[in-house]
Amino acid sequence: MALSSQNIGRLSALVTIVLWTSFIIVGRASSSHVLLPLDIVLARILGASLVLLPWAWWMMREPRRRGEKVGSLFGLSPLPLRQTVQAGFLGGLMFATLAYLGFFFAPAAHASVLMPGSLPLWTTLLMWLFLREQIGVHRAIGLGFILVGDVLVGGASLLKAFEGGDVWIGDLFFVCASICWAAYSVTVRRFGLDAAKATMAITAFALVSFVPLYTSLVLLGILPSHFSQASWTEILLQVSFQGVGSVAISGISFTQMIRSYGPVKSTMLTAVVPGLSALGAAILLGEPISWNLMIGLALVTCGILFGVRQAMVKT
Q1: From 124, 129, 150, 257, which residue has the greatest number of CB atoms within 10 Å?
Q2: CA 286/CA 29 separation, integer angstroms
Q3: Are 109 and 278 a contacting pair, CB within 8 Å?
Q4: In angstroms, what CA-CA distances link 176 with 18, 41, 297?
Q5: What is the pLDDT of residue 192?
């Protein structure tokens, strides 16, 4: 029996929440192993490419047989070049690079607040700026809560920078990663991109732009890499989870959720991710949760719920 559009949206939201929560915990745990941040980015791209690019080629085979001009990037992306570059740069390349760099400096709880927790803030601001979507009272209150929560978490680490701490560097990476993913969300909404095609496109862009540059810099000795030192178990874990799970499955589910609910409401539906990932990191990784983190998580969650209330009223 075919799923209704409503059930598809709900399933997409559930899959996204589970994988986003796991992404933060696994990403932070990876920082204590052998691979470096850009090594993990490479594993992510290769894993996603193995699944998505053959699918993209198969999807475009019939139009090619008819002589139609379809896709871009040497036939790897099913989307036009402009959409591929814009979505791929934001959602495929910059988000992953910034997020993995952040995990090597700051704990998972900070990532919970400053990445998924901050998405409603950046998405709403970008929607207002580029698509002229109005910001209602409830949403404005929610965004205020999120902003205060971000300041509590990021501000505390920034103050410790004067004592020689470097957690603030990771926090900055997390904020920038969140902005990039919010911009990707708006791009999907603006062009009305298909979930699978958008995920294939960002993977194709990352493969064409990142892999040759990364490989060249490593071979020239300019960029450090621990790929040759890592065990096959670690490499396969990163390829399968970061590539297949976090990109192929999560990318499609998140993009489908945007199509079902819109970018603002979609990011609001991830309200449980900050709390779940922070709790998971405390249990699985032994990370402490300080008072400012607890208050920051509470404020971010309340802020997201305020936004959900307005989004539900509109629909």
Answers
A1: 257
A2: 11
A3: yes
A4: 22, 16, 19
A5: 86
- 165, 41 Cβ separation under 8 angstroms: no
Helices 195-219, 250-261: axis angle to 10 degrees equals 140
Closest CA to 183 of 130, 260, 136, 134: 130
In the chain, % helix, strand, coil (3-state, to 5) comes to 80, 0, 20
The tokens for 122 are 């950046």
The phi, psi pair for 18, rounded to 5°, reads -65, -45
Q: What pLDDT shows up at residue 2?
A: 60
By CB neighbour count within 10 A (0-12 exposed, 13-18 middle, 19+ buried), where does 6 fall? exposed
Answer yes or no: are the C-beta atoms of 232 and 9 closer than 8 Å: no
d(CA 173, CA 17): 21
Which residues of the chain register pLDDT less than 70?
1-3, 156-164, 263-264, 267-269, 307-315
Q: Can you tell me the distance from the alpha carbon of 170 to that of 158, in angstroms, rounded to the nearest whole number?
A: 10
> How is residue 125 written in tokens?
């601001």
According to DSSP H, which parts of 161-194 are helical?
167-191
Helical H runs in 192-271?
195-219, 232-237, 250-261, 263-268
